[in-house]
Amino acid sequence: MLQARYNEIQKEVSAYIKKIGYSPDTVPFVPISGWHGDNMLEGSAKMPWFKGWKVTKDKKENSGMTIMDALDNIDPPKRPSDKPLRLPLQDVYKIGGTISDRSPNFIRFFVECNVSNLAEQLLNSQPVEKCHCQQLAR
Q: Which residues contact 113 (CB under 8 A, 6 or more apart)?
């Protein structure tokens, strides 16, 4: 029964992954039980039908038994360090009650972890609009 449900979910998710433009061959499918810890850190004897997962990425084949092996298999994203710093806008506060070109605004950005020399990048960047960096808070 567990294997039939696993195969059903794998088939549906594979179809969705393919529909949105990714290859299902690059995605590891691992049956787990978070409640009992099956196939989380160690292979489970309760699922003898599961022989492990195999994925092929960039002509390289990886395999494993657990969800931890699958998470360790994820490649970190490439950061474009040669391009200008871009920060996702989190919020804009209008100060002064009225919206005009001269009313001061407070803009808060969300900064990802491990962005080194942020203050230097902010001060040396070429803004589209004239702005002033008043404070960098952690």
A: none
Point out which residues pair with 38 in neighbouring strands. Answer: 33
Q: Could you identify the residue written with the tokens 């022989």?
A: 51
Give the integer Cα–Cα distance in Å for 59 and 120.
40
Tokens of 53: 């997962």
Supply the DSSP symbol for 76: P
Residue 39, exposed/middle/buried by CB under 10 A (0-12, 13-18, 19+)? buried
List phi, psi (to 5°) of 108: -110, 130
Measured CA to CA, the distance from residue 65 to residue 44 in angstroms comes to 9
Residue type for position 53: W
The CA distance from 30 to 51, in Å, is 10
Q: What is the pLDDT of residue 17?
A: 95
User: Which of the pair, 87 or 10, is modelled with greater confidence?
Assistant: 10
Q: What residue type is 66 in one-letter code?
A: T
Alpha helices for 20-65 (secondary structure H): none
Is the pTM of the predicted complex or chain greater than 0.85? no
Q: Count other Cβ atoms within 10 Å, centred on residue 124.
A: 10
